[in-house]
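Feature request, filed as a ticket because there's no other form

It would be nice if the structure record came with a short human-readable summary line next to the tokens. Right now we just get the raw output. Example of a typical job, pasted below so the devs can see what we mean:
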Amino acid sequence: MKVLKWLDEYLEESLLVMLLVLISVVMIAQVFARYVLNNSMSWPEEFCRYCYVWSVFLSLSFTIKKRSMLRVGVVMDLFPAKIQSSVRIFCDLVMFVLFVVFFQHAFAVVGNIKNVTREISSAMRVPMWIVYFCTIVGFGLSIIRALQAIISDIRNFNVKAESTHDATLKEAQAEAELAAQDDASHI
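Raw output as currently delivered:
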């Protein structure tokens, strides 16, 4: 159970951090090779591009989990709590259905690349289905996170959500306190 709880809490974050570290290390190595050794490598640009693509699809589920998808909170604040909850559930359902459709199409695309076209990347010579597999992983995780959001919204249907104004104010106060602590530690 501890493993499942850890995966639920940190899977996307961990993968995104690993991808960012990989991109950074490879780009630093490329800069070193190009400007210090005068010998540029052929594969780092492609590798970093593919890591970036993977991070985009992994960030879908991460933003759903953190409830940081693009939304217009100020308008939602104008409605009563039950309407807000209903709209949230409706939006989560739309997202869920959308990701299910994308997930199905991703399987078709990846299967076509793997079995029919058999494309290979130009610099690294990696099968392209591995690169495109990020769509299956990203949409699959997004389905799970959207389902979790729907369940959470149904469980908390009668709980009034924090207003956009209050959330923004709380975030600004936390940032100000952090800045004040940082300033105090440098004195």
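Something like this underneath would help us a lot:
DSSP finds six helices and no strands in the chain.
The longest helix spans residues 81-117.
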